[in-house]
Amino acid sequence: DVKVTQSSRYLVKRTGEKVFLECVQDMDHENMFWYRQDPGLGLRLIYFSYDVKMKEKGDIPEGYSVSREKKERFSLILESASTNQTSMYLCASSWIGQGQIYEQYFGPGTRLTVT
Amino acid sequence: AQSVTQLGSHVSVSEGALVLLRCNYSSSVPPYLFWYVQYPNQGLQLLLKYTSAATLVKGINGFEAEFKKSETSFHLTKPSAHMSDAAEYFCAVKSTLTFGKGTMLLVSP
Hints:
The complex is a heterodimer.
Chain A: E1 4-6, E2 10-13, E3 19-25, E4 31-38, E5 42-49, E6 56-57, E7 64-70, E8 73-78, E9 87-94, E10 105-106, E11 110-114
Parallel strand pairs in A: 2-11
Antiparallel strand pairs in A: 1-3, 3-8, 4-5, 4-9, 5-6, 7-8, 9-10, 9-11
Chain B: E1 3-7, E2 10-14, E3 19-26, E4 33-38, E5 44-50, E6 56-58, E7 64-68, E8 73-78, E9 87-93, E10 98-99, E11 103-108
Parallel strand pairs in B: 2-11
Antiparallel strand pairs in B: 1-3, 3-8, 4-5, 4-9, 6-7, 7-8, 9-10, 9-11
């Protein structure tokens, strides 16, 4: 079974703090993704990475950065947390297809509250 | 750009009734389409995917979806709802996964 784990299920941080969300996958997937999920808005892609040290902006990258130093680990960084970043954050991973599209495997999510 | 539209943010059915969750896509190329389910306080898990091999796709837990190119639709169905099907369902297109906004399925006894 593919496993994607996230470092925390619940996190409470103060405005202005630097926040690290960690994601680890154990299936040697090339692709990794960070989404945020908000009621009524569905999932929105923040960043994704298709290889170590490679990253691409998604739909809503402002206020976030990412790091991928090892293939299995993908970190999301909030440089200076703000209240509008209170959300559920979901990490996912998938293989890169050769003419095939592969589904994503998701972690359980981190519910971040910024006060 | 590819996009998906899910009609209805909430759908309510009685236990044993037909489940129909609607998804329409826009894509200028043959799409890859997915349905995911999210149970409370969990991540998303794949229900089924369409990759052009067959228009009727069977997934887990008795769900299936039919790809209709003429209608640009990929609706999710289940003949008989169970209480355990209560969850949020997401339609998605292609592999970076543009998601719909989700449909919450409520099942009453």
